[in-house]
Each structure stands twice: as structure tokens, then as C-alpha cells.
């Protein structure tokens, strides 16, 4: 399967250069998110890791302690511009492919089996989650961990209403992802983690105007301009404060 849609491909090609600078990627956010990932995947030295939809590799520090150049992480992503932003590090092997292609073994990874699979903020791009999860789970070693980190469909973001609604319609429910893992023979644990956010209102509106979330790329320039006006009316204050929540769905292969 080719990169899912041109819309998604264009979105990340446009965003790649500025991806790491978005509002959420403060140093505290990146380190807490990396810790939460590390606590769940509990990586051991020598384990084989794939970051599926790795993007720019912002959260790979979760694996820092256990990864060496002899045992690199497979950083899988269909977007060449995103992979081009990976740090120049011999411990990372870029693989240009979709999750679906890897799941279907259309693209071979350096290792035949995986101990750890991470998919952070990627699974909403996959249309057949059950098949993709089944294909990846089949490539896990016993004791392997498959961690999906994803936004739930209901967001508390101060976005314009149509964007919140469209996001909710397109975003998979964490329970459905957990169900796909169970159907693939994994033992599943789920949790919701909350990150408090305080951001300058003008910076946030500017990011929305640059379509930093992929759902924003589905709006025309005119619709987006109307949405930004709505946000300016509804949020006159200098700073915005809200909770960012992520579902962590961990599947362990018995
Ligand atoms: C929001 S970014 C997340 C990147 C990284 N995991 C992070 O958390 O910073 C989503 C990434 O998923 C990639 N992507 C889109 N469709 C995909 C697919 N079908 N399979 C794997 N990755 C995909 C995009 O190219 C992009 O790099």
C-alpha cells in the first residue's frame, strides 16, 4: 500500500521542518512523555525496537539507555521529509514505509522479530487497524511490548468547533485499539495520562493557521480563516490553559 492519502503526505511534507517546534513540544512535555513511554516498554539492552510512524524521532530518548549502533532502532515512516529530520545517529535506521506495509511484510525490517513496537500519534492514519495490529503482533517475540500512544477522539483543545468535531469523527477510540490487540493475542493494559498546557494564545492561533494537526489540512483556506476568527472571538485572553490527554494502550505478547 502506498502512503495512505496525498492529503496526509502533503501535510507532513509541509510540517517536517517545523514539527519539533510546535506548542506541545516543550522540554518538559518531551521528557515526561518519554518517561511515560520508557516506564511502559521497559526496554532491556539488546532488545529489537521499531518506532512505527517515528516522524522526526522526537521521543526516541525513551530508548536511549538500551540502544547501541550494533542494535539500532528501526525508525519507520512513509514521509521522507519527516525521516530526513531524524538526528544523525548510528543508533537509528530509517525505513521509509507505512505501518500497513510492515504489518503485511511487504517491507522487511533489519530484525525478523521485535521486542518493542512504539506507535505514537500515528494510528489515526491507519484505515484498517485490526489487520495492521494483527500483522505487527505476529512479528513480536514472546514477552514483546506494543505501545500505542494516541489522542482520544474528544479533545479539550481551544480549537474551532468544526475542527474538534471532525477530529472526533476521524480519531479511533482507545477501546477499539485495545480490542484489536486482544484479538491479536496480546494482553492489554490501558491508561489515560494528562499533560497541563499553558500557551500564548497568539502562538496557538498561529500554529492552527499553519495547520499543525493533520485534521486542519482537511479544511480549505476560507474555512480555516473562519475557524481562526471563531477562536479569536472565543479566546480573547493572552494565554490559553487546557489539558492535553493521551491514551496509552500497551499490548504484551504472552
Ligand atoms: C503526528 S506524527 C507523529 C510522529 C512521532 N511518532 C511523534 O510522536 O513525534 C505522525 C507520523 O505518522 C506518519 N504516518 C502517516 N501515515 C502513516 C502510516 N500509514 N504508517 C506509518 N506512519 C504513518 C507521518 O508521516 C508522521 O511522521
Summarize the structure.
This protein has 254 residues and is an alpha/beta fold. The chain has helices at 6-15, 27-41, 80-83, 99-103, 129-137, 161-170, 174-183, 201-209, 221-234, and strands at residues 49-52, 73-76, 92-95, 114-120, 140-150, 187-200, 239-252.
Number of domains: 1
Overall pLDDT confidence: 92
CATH class: Alpha Beta
Shape: globular
Helix-strand topology string: HHEEHEHEHEHHEHHE
Cα-atom Rg, whole angstroms?
A: 18 Å
Q: Residue ranges: pLDDT <50 for 5 or more in a row?
A: none
Number of strands: 7
> Which architecture would the CATH scheme give at its second level?
3-Layer(aba) Sandwich
Total of helices: 9
Bound molecules: S-adenosylmethionine
Give the termini separation.
30 Å
Helix percent band: 25-40%
Tell me the strand percentage band. 15-25%
General description of the model:
With 254 residues, this protein is α/β, with parallel strands linked by helices. The protein has one domain (6-197, 244-252): Rossmann fold. Helix content is 34%, strand content 23%. The chain has helices spanning 6-15, 27-41, 80-83, 99-103, 129-137, 161-170, 174-183, 201-209, 221-234, and strands spanning 49-52, 73-76, 92-95, 114-120, 140-150, 187-200, 239-252. The chain has a seven-stranded mixed beta sheet, sandwiched between helices. α5 (129-137) crosses α7 (174-183). The longest helix is centred in the N-terminal third of the chain and has 15 residues, at 27-41. The chain is globular and about 55 Å long. Bound molecules: S-adenosylmethionine (SAM). S-adenosylmethionine is lined by residues 4, 8, 12, 52-55, 58-59, 77-79, 82, 98-100, 120-122, 125-126.
Amino acid at each position: 500500500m502506498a502512503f495512505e492519502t496525498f492529503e496526509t503526505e502533503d501535510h507532513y511534507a509541509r510540517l517536517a521542518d517545523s514539527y519539533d517546534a510546535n506548542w506541545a513540544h516543550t522540554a518538559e512535555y518531551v521528557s515526561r512523555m518519554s518517561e511515560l513511554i520508557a516506564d511502559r516498554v521497559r526496554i532491556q539492552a539488546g532488545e529489537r525496537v521499531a518506532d512505527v510512524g517515528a516522524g522526526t524521532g522526537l521521543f526516541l530518548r525513551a530508548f536511549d539507555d538500551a540502544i547501541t549502533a550494533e542494535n539500532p532502532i528501526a525508525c519507520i515512516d512513509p514521509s521522507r521529509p519527516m525521516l530526513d529530520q531524524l538526528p544523525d545517529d548510528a543508533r537509528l535506521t530509517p525505513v521509509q514505509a507505512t505501518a500497513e506495509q510492515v504489518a503485511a511484510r511487504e517491507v522487511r525490517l533489519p530484525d525478523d522479530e521485535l521486542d518493542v513496537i512504539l506507535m505514537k500519534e500515528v494510528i489515526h492514519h491507519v484505515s484498517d487497524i485490526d489487520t495492521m495490529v494483527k500483522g505487527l503482533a505476529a512479528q513480536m517475540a514472546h514477552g514483546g511490548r506494543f505501545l500505542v500512544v494516541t489522542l482520544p477522539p474528544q479533545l479539550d483543545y481551544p480549537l474551532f468547533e468544526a475542527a474538534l468535531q471532525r477530529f472526533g469523527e476521524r480519531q479511533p477510540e482507545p477501546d477499539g485499539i485495545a480490542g484489536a490487540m486482544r484479538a491479536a493475542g496480546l494482553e492489554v493494559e490501558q491508561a489515560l495520562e494528562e499533560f497541563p498546557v499553558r500557551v500564548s494564545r497568539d502562538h496557538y492561533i498561529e500554529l492552527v493557521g499553519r495547520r499543525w494537526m493533520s485534521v486542519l489540512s482537511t479544511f480549505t483556506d476560507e474555512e480555516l480563516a473562519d475557524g481562526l476568527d471563531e477562536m479569536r472571538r472565543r479566546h480573547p485572553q493572552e494565554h490559553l490553559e487546557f489539558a492535553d490527554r493521551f491514551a496509552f494502550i500497551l499490548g504484551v505478547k504472552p
